[in-house]
Amino acid sequence: MTTSTDQMEHSSDSGLGPRTTTLLRFATAGSVDDGKSTLVGRLLHDSKSVLADQLEAVEHASRSRGQDAPDLALLTDGLRAEREQGITIDVAYRYFATPRRRFILADTPGHVQYTRNMVTGASTAELAVVLVDARNGVVEQTRRHAAVAALLRVPHVVLAVNKMDLVDYQESVFAAIAEEFTTYASELGVPEITAIPISALLGDNVVDPSTSMDWYAGPTVLEHLETVEISHDVAGHHARFPVQYVIRPQTSEHPDYRGYAGQIAAGVLRAGQEVTVLPSGRTSTITGIDLLGTRVETAWAPQSVTLLLADDIDISRGELIVPSDAVPGSSQDVEATVCHVADTPLTVGQRVLLKHTTRTVKAIVKEIPSRLTLDDLSQHPNPEQLVANDIGRVKVRTAEPLALDAYADSRRTGSFLLIDPADGTTLAAGMAGESFVKA
Question: In 3D, which of 386, 431, 30, 379 has the Cα closest to residue 200?
């Protein structure tokens, strides 16, 4: 596998050859006043990703508040309440690019009561940047953010030790914080942790290397974001294809065309491959794969394609096409870790809808065995209900069998939503199978 510097990623085991991967999704998290919004603003500003009118608006707003220099945090805190309170409330998605890579940034809140927002922002992230104030070190909320990153199986975590200018750029301060955080996150199972000393306010080690910390020889934040290897090992996952739409033009040009459209959730699909359709269990063979109007022999996640099968099978939205030699088990009993995101509680006996990929089925919450305390990772048994921002274990019984993978094996096909059938409100985001286990 080459690095992202070359903007190429090889999947040699799958026989696909190189393919371009220029997009990195990452999330930021940090306690209140750790300088997270300033870091994001500095990252956008110094990477020349801010439009002139945006910068002018920030400069005007800063002057009206009596500040001499532009407050770069205003580039990210877009809600009126955020600006007034000086805090981040909602998840803000920012898009920017450098010559090496394109980025989608989810800027998430730091308050405890917005844990659900961090879960939302980090659920699709391949990297999380966790900020720590160098004066305060690792605090309770830092441990929460590390736990959420581990729970969501975020493969890369960057510890940005901010405000180094306020501790005289002391290497010993940075080293102590980095060791404490790395030890804790490693126990949670975070596979890769990179610690970087920064000053977001002054720009040290954000985009440009710091001249005040010559003892640090590692990458800047942007350099690490540009070069971190993001694995899309398509051969390492069994193929999963949730059907979104059945295409039947029934025109004179395509009188017998029947295609099954959707986005490949995991793995590789090939023409000639024998597949099984779930939940029916019917089998067939892929006779063709259409990608952007072109017939191809091979396709892989996350491409959107249309599959053509040899047999005329009754297939509709919500069904799952998988390789016949890698059929997942189906069950009506789902045990998972969920983050409750609604303002109304989730209770035992509650009737819900469970949405998995493109399929939605009726379900009932049979049991809530425990609620997780993120401060020390202890389990509070039988809480009876989960309220907003709670993370806990649930057992759900579905009206129809579902083919869920373990979240540890596939973040896409191991996740689901619990929905209020009355008004369509999302109640909880779920991760099937075991939660993280401390080493």
Answer: 30
pLDDT tens digits, 187-238? 888 989 999 999 998 999 999 999 999 999 999 999 999 999 876 555 568 9
Task: Provide the terminal-to-terminal Cα distance of the chain, rounded to the nearest Å.
Answer: 28
Among the residues of 283-381, which ranges form H helices?
none
**Tokens, residue 38:** 């300033």
> What is the residue-averaged pLDDT of the chain?
84
Reduce the DSSP state of residue 313 to 3 states and report it: coil
Following DSSP, what letter does each residue of 369-407 receive, concatenated? EEEEETTTTEEEE--SEE-TT-EEEEEEEEEEEE-PPPT
pLDDT digits (tens, 9 = 90+) for 359-409: 999 999 999 999 988 777 788 999 989 998 888 999 999 999 999 999 988
C-alpha distance from residue 90 to each of 44, 80, 118, 343, 415 (Å): 19, 11, 9, 15, 22
Contacts of 271 by beta carbon, 8 Å cutoff, 6+ apart: 286, 287, 288, 289, 296, 297, 298
CA distance 85 to 423: 32
Highest mean pLDDT among 62-76, 141-155, 390-404: 390-404
Hey, what are 26's tokens? Answer: 């990452």
Q: Which of 172, 54, 40, 60 is nearest to 107 (CA)?
A: 40
CA atoms of 404 and 409, how far apart (whole Å): 10
Q: What is the three-state SS of 79-111?
A: CHHHHHHCCCCCCEEEEEECCCCEEEEEECCCC
Dihedral sign computed on CA atoms, order 129, 135, 141, 146:
positive
